[in-house]
């Protein structure tokens, strides 16, 4: 499917995936609450036949490729769950809205979704989730963000899966000192988006640099900055021995390309949102295949874990010729986490928003076979402190392979994340 304009892209994907538009109000669209014939309490998003699950994604903005993979993976999961009988005698239904990585559009989309869904199984973008955090809390809207800013912790209704950006940078920087020759007294660059995402990552790199005796050379950029020439020039002048990157795939491609062209052959380690396999089909590929790494709380789609191999095959069958990137794993596993909570809520005969959150928070140990054990019983700290280090590989599905398995560094064990606002 070729996307030629924002409106066309969003409409075409919604039609192709069979997702619904949210209606006005009432039981026909959102469920009016009450108790069904089997004694199950219901609330918004739940009718006698359907459970509607919201998705706030980016199909037309800076993270459009990621948003598309996330959403298609979640639609695949919902179709599989429905084929297996649904949940609590009801079919699951995704209600998708595209915010284009724009906070104002995200707020409007949330207002449309709020009366009509039980929760949000996907919400792309730390700035968007942060802007709506108070509404999510007051609405008791169980939300799984595709964002890992530290500031999203501390709210029972928001489940940050995996690690947070600061944890990944701490684990990643210690890995650089142990495996890539970075030593005390060295300078390390950190290019990062302004706002919650980049500044959360920066908090981690600052902490680790201080503990390891490194000097951090900061380069703050905007999400609209695509040319990293000025940043590379500054890092070269500073004489950095490694570069951390907490931005988007486009920025990573520019940074790597310009750096290598200028003879800067130091390792580049990006946060989990900083790579797309589509880049390996562009002129930036040689640079991105040269000492470029990614931090991640989850195993890549190239993993030989049975659950991930099964997913990779099913996704390829459902969406032939579509990229199989790590967002596929993230979207699918978040859908699994959400639906697992729905099943527990059904067992407790409480399909209200409060019942869903209570059911989810009862899980002190969750894995699902995807390689990342997590604890959901607390909400003031990350679900795990273990980070994978992934390496680019043009021959691998998704363009990434495991360089180092999920591990918790010594530094991170004593780290205290800043309190969420």
Secondary-structure blueprint of this entry?
Elements: H1 6-17, E1 34-35, E2 41-42, E3 50-57, H2 64-83, E4 91-98, H3 103-113, E5 119-124, H4 126-131, H5 133-138, E6 142-146, H6 165-179, E7 187-193, H7 196-212, E8 215-221, H8 229-238, E9 242-246, H9 249-261, E10 268-270, H10 285-288, E11 292-296, H11 306-318, H12 326-347, E12 350-351, H13 353-361, E13 387-392, E14 400-407, H14 410-413
Parallel strand pairs: 2-12, 3-4, 3-5, 5-6, 7-8, 7-9, 9-10, 10-11
Antiparallel strand pairs: 1-2, 11-13, 13-14
Outline of the structure:
With 421 residues, this protein is an alpha/beta fold. It is built from 14 helices and 14 strands.
Give an overview of the whole structure.
- This protein is of the alpha/beta class.
- The protein folds into 2 domains: 6-163 and 304-361, Response regulator (Rossmann fold); 165-296 and 386-413, Response regulator (Rossmann fold, 3-Layer(aba) Sandwich), CATH 3.40.50.
- It is 38% helix and 18% strand.
- The strands form 3 sheets. It has a 7-stranded mixed sheet with strand order 8-7-9-10-11-13-14, with helices on both faces. A 4-stranded parallel sheet has the order 4-3-5-6.
- β9, α9 (249-261) and β10 (268-270) form a beta-alpha-beta unit.
- α6 packs parallel to α7 (196-212), α8 (229-238) packs across α9 (249-261) and α12 (326-347) crosses α13 (353-361).
- The radius of gyration is 21 Å and the shape is globular.
- Mean pLDDT is 91; it is low at 1-30.
């Amino acid at each position: 499917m070729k996307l030629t304009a924002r409106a066309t892209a969003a409409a075409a994907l919604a039609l192709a995936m069979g997702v619904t538009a949210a209606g006005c109000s009432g039981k026909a669209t959102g469920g009016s609450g009450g108790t069904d014939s089997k004694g199950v309490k219901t609330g918004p998003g739940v009718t006698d036949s359907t459970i509607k699950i919201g998705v706030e994604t980016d199909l037309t903005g800076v993270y459009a490729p990621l948003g598309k993979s996330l959403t298609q993976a979640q639609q695949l999961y919902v179709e599989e769950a429905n084929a297996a009988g649904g949940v609590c005698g009801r079919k699951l239904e995704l209600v998708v809205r595209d915010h284009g990585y724009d906070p104002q559009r995200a707020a409007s989309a949330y207002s449309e979704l709020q009366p009509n869904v039980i929760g949000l199984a996907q919400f792309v973008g730390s700035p968007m989730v942060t802007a709506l955090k108070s509404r999510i809390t007051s609405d008791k809207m169980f939300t799984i963000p595709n964002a890992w800013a530290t500031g999203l912790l501390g709210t029972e209704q928001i489940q940050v899966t995996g690690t947070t950006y600061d944890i990944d940078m701490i684990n990643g920087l210690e890995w650089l000192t142990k495996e890539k020759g970075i030593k005390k007294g060295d300078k390390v660059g950190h290019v990062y988006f302004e706002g919650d995402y980049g500044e959360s990552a920066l908090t981690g790199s600052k902490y680790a640099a201080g503990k390891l005796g490194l000097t951090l050379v900061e380069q703050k950029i905007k999400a609209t900055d695509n040319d990293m020439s000025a940043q590379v020039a500054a890092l070269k002048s500073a004489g950095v021995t490694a570069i951390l990157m907490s931005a988007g795939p486009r920025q990573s491609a520019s940074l790597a390309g310009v750096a290598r062209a200028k003879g800067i052959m130091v390792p580049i380690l990006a946060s989990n949102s900083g790579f797309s396999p589509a880049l390996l089909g562009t002129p930036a590929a040689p640079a991105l295949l040269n000492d470029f790494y990614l931090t991640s709380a989850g195993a890549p789609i190239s993993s030989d874990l049975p659950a991930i191999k099964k997913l990779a095959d099913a996704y390829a069958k459902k969406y032939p010729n579509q990229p199989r990137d790590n967002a596929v794993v993230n979207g699918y596993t978040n859908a699994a986490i959400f639906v697992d909570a729905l099943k527990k809520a059904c067992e407790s005969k409480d399909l209200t928003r409060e019942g869903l959150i209570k059911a989810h928070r009862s899980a002190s140990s969750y894995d699902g076979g995807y390689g990342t054990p997590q604890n959901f019983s607390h909400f003031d700290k990350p679900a795990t402190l273990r980070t994978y280090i992934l390496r680019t590989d043009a021959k691998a599905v998704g363009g990434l392979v495991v360089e180092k398995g999920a591990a918790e560094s010594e530094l991170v064990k004593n780290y205290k994340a800043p309190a969420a606002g």
